[in-house]
Amino acid sequence: MCDQDHFEQDREEFEKLGWVTRRQFGVMLGAGMAMMLPEVANAVTVTESDVTVKTPDGTADCYFVHPASGTAPGVLVWPDIFGLRPAFRQMAKRLAETGYSVLVVNPFYRVKKAPTAEKGAATPIPSLLPLAQALNETTHMTDAKAFVAWLDQQQSVAKNRKVGTQGYCMGGPMAFRTAAAVPDRVGAVASFHGGGLVTNMPNSPHLQASKTKAQLLIAIAANDDMRSPDEKNVLKDTFAKSNQPAEIEVYTGAAHGWCPPDSGVYNEPQAEKAWARLLALYGKALS
């Protein structure tokens, strides 16, 4: 997804379904400002920093946040096409406050340091497409190996517990391929409004993830399901055949991009539902 060609189609769908008015859609998209996420109950104190990670192709600028004491399972976060920005720092910090060591990466580090989207989530998508189109299966896999290896070098990351990974929009396939790249370390994969999870190619991300032992959470936007109604069934059948626990659900009333709090279609009730399901997944798979 994340395709400017769908802009008007999205707006018309949202209006038709009563999710948003024309004026609201324009105002929200133009604002590009992150809302404050709900506070974490019994949040642990965390330490945060900007870090760099060496990869086969250079040095990636990232954000790392983790509990201030002890060790915690590592989590690798792949952002959407708008990249590493305040909204994803906020999301990562919240996750760390629940007891995880979280690395959010700049997937476009080969070309540009973050911020890579000048106006955050309000940046015109056509200007970002060249960045996204420069990435592929090879970069996904080599980056995943480097980022997980970096996590395993950190004192705050528990080496005796599996790693989790989550991706948003274009980050969904990257999360799937992370499990395929490091199958012995990744225990949980979450995709939120992921685009390109299922293709007709033998290297489709869903097929690669099905060859691992990772547990999965796949949260699908309602309008994405409208465009590709059979995709959820392909995912369900694939992971049933591989005997992998997979929670696959279409989020009613949630539009593509509903999770990041700076998104023009941020849907707090459904984002909080996705958050709760993510914590449930990590609680089972990374314990």
Description:
Helix content is about 35%, strand content about 20%. The chain has about 290 residues and is α/β, with parallel strands linked by helices. It has an eight-stranded mixed β-sheet, with helices on both faces. Helix 7 (about 205-210) links the parallel strand 6 and strand 7. The two termini are about 35 Å apart.
Distance between the termini: 33 Å
Largest sheet: 8 strands, mixed
Mean pLDDT: 91
User: Roughly how much helix do the residues carry, as a percent range?
Assistant: 25-40%
Q: How many strands?
A: 8
**Total count of helical runs of at least 4 residues:** 10
Quaternary structure of the protein: single chain
- Computed over alpha carbons, the radius of gyration is 18 Å
Q: What descriptive keywords fit this protein?
A:
287 residues; alpha/beta; eight-stranded mixed β-sheet; 8 strands; 36% helix
